[in-house]
TrEMBL record:
Residues of the PNPLA domain: 10-257
Protein name, UniProt field: Patatin-like phospholipase family protein
Short motif GXSXG, span: 41-45
Taxonomic lineage: Bacteria, Bacillati, Bacillota, Bacilli, Bacillales
Active-site residues, as the UniProt record annotates them: 43, 238
Entry keyword set: Hydrolase, Lipid degradation, Lipid metabolism
Motif GXGXXG per record, residues: 14-19
Amino acid sequence: MSRVFESFGLVLSGGGARGAYEVGVAKYLADQNYIPAAYAGASIGALNASFLGTASTFQAGVKHLEQIWGSIQSNDVVKLNKGLFVFGFLHALFKRSLQSRPELALVNPLLQLAADSSRFFGRLGQVSRLLSDNPLYSNLQKGLLDDGFLRNLLEEELALYRVEHAAPIWISAYASQGTVDDILAYLLSNLGIKDNPDSEYFKLSEIDEKQRLSVILASAAIPVVYGSHIVEGKRYIDGGVGGERTARGNTPLAPLVASGCRQCIVVNLSDGAMFNRHDFPDTVIIEVRPETSIHPDGMLSSLLDFREDRIKDLISMGYSDAERCIGNALLALNLVQDGRRSTLIRDESIRRLENDGFDEMLKKL
């Protein structure tokens, strides 16, 4: 790798079917023999990070992951996840309505005004309690869909037994307060009223081996759609839910930085991610972002689009963007390092000239 970027962490964000883009980024890294020293992932990024981090070699992990993505049957995935995006669809529809119908723009300021009132939050609590008392709530807690397909895939294909000897892997997961409360908190955060709590980060090698699969499944457990998973006595859901306004849950760079990682590559799966690299001023961060829209037909359709040709396009796009972003960034870092090295050599040469006694010899002549 670059002589100034020899050890780095790889952060993989969540984003449904767009996770194929991360495979393309990984392929570029493998082709250049750039091997991550640590991983962190959320939702689909958690799955990708787990496969890459537990492989016998990084190159083998990339090849295996590409095979898995290439073997996905679109009908099976869409059938499994069809309800997954109901909540997101309703929210997207609401946001779009605000843009297309100016008269509805009054709603957002009213919500903001209401947020300043303790009575407003008290009423939210009442709503939550009323919904929680509904007999249907217990079924809602279990999720609309069975995650058996995903569980079987991970049990058959993921080498979790290698975790102790693998590069560190952190998984982002959100401590659930109950389905209704989770949804209300997410809505308030997404509307810019009040940010929801941050996700928590689990280092796979430091939790009980029987809990590791549950952590990964929890990271991908979208509220309502999939049931939560119990980890260390608490219920957890999709890691991308936490800290929604700053994307710290969906882009889990924080645990890598906290562990001492000072160089990271962050892969974003949206056109305008909320992640802010300036929140980590002491870390050298290379971001890989799509050069062209990664969801040209809309956020919802891109999350569901597991068609074979689309997966191939995303992998190709990820590879191309990685080549552009990482290649150019490393070139710039090397130039900066060369400039610093030249400055040090110049200063040392000047110091030696000043102390070589030549001026004293001239005076004697």
